[in-house]
């Protein structure tokens, strides 16, 4: 048996009239909306976007966004949605008080990672564009295959394998040194190469109890536009601003968050987030 839409509506109305359903009719309603990307950009400039015409928007934001006019259109569309919701609420109940509230910042959230965070374009063959600030250093424009940041717990995994030195690389470096006329006091043999390689790689790992992060920049491109910076190191705070098109921020290889142009992430380690672990020694086992 098929029930027509009119029959469904009539049945629902009859249920309301019989008080089987108790509709929720609040006296007050608040519409909360997040700031549009246009508002966010001009809040950083401490300027009202309403005072700019389309041409001024293109001049102000044209270097950062492909279409500043499209940014304005999307902002206007968001405002129209808010106004439409407000009109519907007003028409439904004239006695209802409707207010609109706006979050003055783009929506932000707090995530935790135990081992590492990877930031970069989703496609492996596409380069990643971003600005990065290590601790309180300068904000540096970068182009690379992505960036990893790890804790001591994750330092023996991806971070280690990105940066580890191979015996082949050590042997080739020593060969270049010899060809340059530089002499070593000892004879370089396979044992020494293995020892150099082992000692270098051991320094890449660090303890999980240390409140610091290790960062690695994968396949960096350095030129006049993208200045040189340390491709690996330690930090207490890392700020990254995305310039990517189809990027993700991946936590511990499982949780994936969109990280496209305009998105910012601040990476820090807080003592209150530390895990409490228990070690069981043999002498205390029954």
UniProtKB/TrEMBL annotation:
The entry lists its GO molecular-function terms as: NAD+ kinase activity
Q: Which GO terms describe its biological process?
A: NAD+ metabolic process
Query: Which Gene Ontology terms of cellular component type are present?
Result: mitochondrion
Q: Which InterPro entries match?
A: ATP-NAD_kinase_PpnK-typ_C, NAD/diacylglycerol_kinase_sf
User: Which Gene3D superfamilies does UniProt cross-reference here?
Assistant: Probable inorganic polyphosphate/atp-NAD kinase, domain 2
User: PANTHER family from the xrefs?
Assistant: NAD(+) KINASE, PTHR13158
This one is known as Uncharacterized protein
Q: Which organism is it from?
A: Meloidogyne graminicola
């Amino acid at each position: 048996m098929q029930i027509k839409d009119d029959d469904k509506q009539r049945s629902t109305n009859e249920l309301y009239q019989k008080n089987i359903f108790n509709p929720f009719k609040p006296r007050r309603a608040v519409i909360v909306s997040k700031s549009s990307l246009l508002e966010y950009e001009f809040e950083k400039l401490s300027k009202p976007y309403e005072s700019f015409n389309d041409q001024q928007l293109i001049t102000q934001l044209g270097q950062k966004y492909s279409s500043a006019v499209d940014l304005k259109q999307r902002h206007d569309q968001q405002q129209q949605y808010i106004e439409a919701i407000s009109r519907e609420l007003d028409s439904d109940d004239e006695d209802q008080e409707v207010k609109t509230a706006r979050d003055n910042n783009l929506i932000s959230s707090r995530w935790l990672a135990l081992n590492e965070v990877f930031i970069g374009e989703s496609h492996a063959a596409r380069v990643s564009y971003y600005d990065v600030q290590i601790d309180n250093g300068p904000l540096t424009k970068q182009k690379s295959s992505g960036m990893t940041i790890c804790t001591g717990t994750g330092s023996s995994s991806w971070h280690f394998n990105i940066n580890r030195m191979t015996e082949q690389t050590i042997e080739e470096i020593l060969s270049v040194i010899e060809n340059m006329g530089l002499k070593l006091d000892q004879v370089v043999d396979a044992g020494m190469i293995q020892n150099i390689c082992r000692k270098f790689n051991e320094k890449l790992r660090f303890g999980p109890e240390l409140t610091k992060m290790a960062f690695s920049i994968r396949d960096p491109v350095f030129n006049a536009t993208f200045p040189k910076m340390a491709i690996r190191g330690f930090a207490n705070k890392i700020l990254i601003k995305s310039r990517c098109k189809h990027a993700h921020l991946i936590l511990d290889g499982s949780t994936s968050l969109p990280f496209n142009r305009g998105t910012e992430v601040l990476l820090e380690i807080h003592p209150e987030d530390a895990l409490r672990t228990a070690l069981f020694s043999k002498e205390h086992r029954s």
